[in-house]
Write a structure and sequence with these properties.
It is built from twelve helices and eleven strands. The chain has helices at 20-23, 75-82, 92-98, 104-113, 132-137, 154-160, 175-178, 200-210, 227-232, 250-259, 277-289, 304-335; strands at 39-45, 56-61, 67-69, 122-126, 145-150, 166-169, 185-191, 211-222, 246-247, 263-268, 343-349. Strand 7, helix 8 and strand 8 (211-222) form a beta-alpha-beta unit.
């Protein structure tokens, strides 16, 4: 069953607690993936990384396992919670751990996985941001024309830096963008893009639309079946509420692509696992165990002694986070081969 359409209201200047009804769609009573009414709550949480006001709920479907934000943010709400406000607190530990997903080593791994299919003539990276992945993939495919698409103007700056040849600003589901690109690319990549989209099924259809017959779709995304998700609950860094809207188990993605006539070539957890579960949970827990930070949306700023105490205690806690990061890497060889794996890579070939 398709997801509810997103609101087209213009984004507001700053979040406020009373804005909850305005930035959320109505709550769903059925699964946006399969339509089942057998839902269960997985967690309720606030914005653990940016401390923006509001409460968020994540539900899971008992039948297909699809995990989703419910009620979902509107387009206005997404813009609101993605926007970085001046003076907003920063959490260098969790921000740095999330950056591991976009590290050069992970980009090299994803590009290397496509080498067995030969060198493509054209490649579109969806959700490319600053286009660091195309810049890395060019090491393996020097004769491939890489284009980038992103909702933000970052992709335009990436074109100016010669990381991509063409820059498209917007979403692939917009017909004004997708129509001119139809059947144009040999490869379309979506690396940790689907979890932040309002309708991942529509994103997949749009990606297949711009692929040439016989072309390949490369997807990396989070696995809600990870044992870490069950053990760590709201402190599992991959939930990243409210910015992640959908987490899809591999079988759902495989079934959707096979129903569209694609051949799923590989589903790989080993290479896609990101070792940051324990350290991410500790960083978030530590940050919220300390005096609350100053934020632009607090009516009364905290006393100076609270701010100084928080800064000192965060610095003192960094060695603990570093030890947890070491533990993540020590258990990674086992985690990536078991249900502890937190992400997966799927490669599908469009029918010729």
């Amino acid at each position: 069953m398709p997801a509810h359409p997103a609101s087209s209201a213009a984004p507001s200047a700053a979040p406020a607690p009373q804005a909850t009804a305005r930035v959320h769609e109505p709550r769903r009573e059925d699964c946006p993936w399969c339509g089942s009414a057998r839902l269960r709550n997985r967690l309720r949480t606030g914005d653990l990384r940016q401390y923006k006001p509001g409460g968020f709920t994540v539900d899971a479907c008992r039948d297909c396992g699809h995990t989703f934000q419910n009620p979902r943010l509107t387009a206005e709400g997404l813009a609101l919670y993605h926007r970085t406000a001046r003076g907003a607190p920063k959490d260098p530990a969790s921000d740095g751990l999330l950056a591991l997903r976009g590290s050069r080593g992970r980009h090299r791994s994803a590009a290397r996985a496509m080498r067995r299919f030969g060198e493509p003539e054209s490649w579109l990276d969806v959700g490319t941001g600053h286009a660091r992945f195309p810049a890395t993939a060019r090491e393996f495919f020097p004769y491939t024309a890489f284009d980038g698409l992103d909702p933000s103007p970052r992709v335009v700056r990436a074109r100016s830096a010669d990381r991509v040849e063409e820059a498209h600003v917007g979403r692939l589901t917009d017909p004004r963008i997708a129509a001119p690109l139809r059947d144009r690319y040999d490869v379309v990549s979506m690396l940790h893009h689907l979890e932040g989209t309002p309708d991942p099924r529509a994103e997949l259809r749009a990606a297949l639309g711009v692929l040439r017959p016989g072309g390949h779709l490369l997807v990396e995304t989070l696995d809600p079946r990870s044992v870490f998700a069950a053990l760590l609950g709201r402190w599992w860094l991959a939930y990243d509420q409210p910015r992640h809207l959908h987490l899809m188990p591999p079988r759902n993605l495989r079934a959707e692509l096979e129903a569209a006539g694609c051949t799923v070539v590989t589903v790989d957890h080993r290479s896609a696992h990101v070792p940051h579960d324990l350290s991410g949970a500790l960083a978030l827990t530590l940050s919220h165990a300390l005096p609350a930070p100053d934020t632009p949306w607090r009516a009364i700023p905290p006393p100076a002694v609270h701010r100084h105490a928080r800064e000192a205690l965060l610095r003192a806690g960094m060695p603990l986070v570093a030890l947890a990061a070491l533990a993540d890497h020590l258990v990674a060889p086992v985690a990536r081969r078991t249900r502890f794996a937190n992400a997966y890579r799927l490669i599908a070939r469009k029918a010729a």
